[in-house]
């Protein structure tokens, strides 16, 4: 459960950045690169110019990661659909 403490969204706040990393990795293990999460973190910080509840900030970072993520190719999501092609290539 997230805390209702308020934070100042600042890209130089190492504690906030570490909290974002831990939150994203706990929610979506291995799904995003840290460079991608860092970009989402910085863009989210830029949207605020005042204190914000920590839970709202974390939710916003998660939304930025999910809504603006790169699309995963169908071949990666459903490799079973492409097994026949691989079998023909290896023959």
Describe this structure in words.
It is a single chain. With 91 residues, the protein is mainly α. It contains five helices and two strands, in the order βααβααα. The chain has a two-stranded antiparallel sheet. The longest helix has 14 residues, at 14-27. The chain starts with 5 loop residues before the first strand and ends with a helix. The mean pLDDT is 85.
Strand order of the largest sheet: 1-2
The biggest sheet, with number of strands, parallel, antiparallel or mixed sense and barrel status, is: 2 strands, antiparallel
Q: What's the average pLDDT?
A: 85
Q: Hey, roughly how much beta strand do the residues contain?
A: under 5%
Q: How many β-strand runs?
A: 2
Query: What is the CA-CA span between the terminal residues?
Result: 53 Å
Poorly predicted runs are none
Shape: elongated
Number of helical runs?
Answer: 5
Computed CA radius of gyration, to the nearest angstrom:
18 Å
Class based on secondary structure composition and strand pairing: mainly alpha
Helical percentage: 55-70%
H-E order: EHHEHHH
Keywords:
single chain; mainly alpha; two-stranded antiparallel sheet; 91 residues; 2 strands
Task: Summarize the entry for a quick read.
The chain has 91 residues and is mainly alpha-helical. The chain has helices at residues 14-27, 34-46, 54-67, 74-77, 83-90, and strands spanning 6-7, 52-53. Helix 1 crosses helix 2.
Write the layout of secondary structure elements.
Elements: E1 6-7, H1 14-27, H2 34-46, E2 52-53, H3 54-67, H4 74-77, H5 83-90
Antiparallel strand pairs: 1-2
Helix pairs in contact: 1-2, 2-3
């Amino acid at each position: 459960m997230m805390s209702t403490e308020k934070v100042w969204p600042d890209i130089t706040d190492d504690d906030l950045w570490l909290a974002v990393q831990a939150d994203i990795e706990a929610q979506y293990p291995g799904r995003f690169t840290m460079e991608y999460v860092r970009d989402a973190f910085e863009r989210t910080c830029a949207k605020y110019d005042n204190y914000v509840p920590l839970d709202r900030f974390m939710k916003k970072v998660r939304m930025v990661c999910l809504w603006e993520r790169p699309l995963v190719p169908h071949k990666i999501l459903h490799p079973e659909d492409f097994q026949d092609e691989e079998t023909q290539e290896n023959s």
